[in-house]
């Protein structure tokens, strides 16, 4: 896998404007897919964790599920609107 990534990075360094635009579009599309799929796997009441500001680990409860984002209530740490792909499931509701 590491050699494949090196080849991709090498290609990007030599790519033209049109190729770079296609690469950026593909990356954005894949990111959207990942956010959406993780969001769809969650349920209201699930306990999730994510890295908050300054790299601090934050844990909270899913309050609302949107298309790509999840509204998470973290108690004293406040309420966060987090992309689905940034969340890790800690405890699933029954």
The value of Rg in angstroms is 17 Å
**Contiguous runs where pLDDT drops below 50 for at least 5 residues:** none
Average of per-residue pLDDT values: 89
Any idea of the CATH class?
Mainly Beta
**Intertermini distance:** 37 Å
Topology-level CATH name = SH3 type barrels
Strand order of the largest sheet: 4-3-2-1-5
Oligomer classification = single chain
The percent range for helix content is 40-55%
**Number of E-state strands:** 5
**Would you tell me the structural class of the helices and strands?**
alpha+beta
Q: What's the helix count?
A: 2
Indicate the overall shape: elongated
Q: Please give the CATH architecture.
A: Roll
- Domain tally: 1
The major pleated sheet works out as: 5 strands, antiparallel
Assess the beta-strand content as a share of residues: 25-35%
* Element string (H = helix, E = strand): HHEEEEE
Detailed description of the structure:
It contains two helices and five strands. Helix content is 40%, strand content 30%. It has one domain: SH3 type barrels (Roll). By secondary structure, it is an alpha+beta fold. The longest helix has 25 residues, at 17-41. The protein has a five-stranded antiparallel sheet.
List keywords for this structure.
94 residues; alpha+beta; SH3 type barrels; 5 strands; 30% strand; elongated
């Amino acid at each position: 896998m590491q050699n494949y990534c090196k080849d991709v990075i090498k290609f990007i360094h030599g790519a033209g404007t049109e190729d770079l635009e296609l690469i950026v579009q593909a990356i954005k599309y894949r990111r959207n897919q990942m956010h959406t799929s993780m969001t769809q796997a969650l349920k209201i009441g699930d306990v999730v964790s994510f890295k908050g500001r300054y790299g601090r680990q934050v844990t909270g409860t899913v309050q609302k599920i949107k298309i790509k984002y999840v509204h998470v209530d973290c108690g004293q740490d406040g309420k966060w609107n987090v992309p689905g792909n940034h969340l890790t499931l800690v405890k699933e509701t029954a």
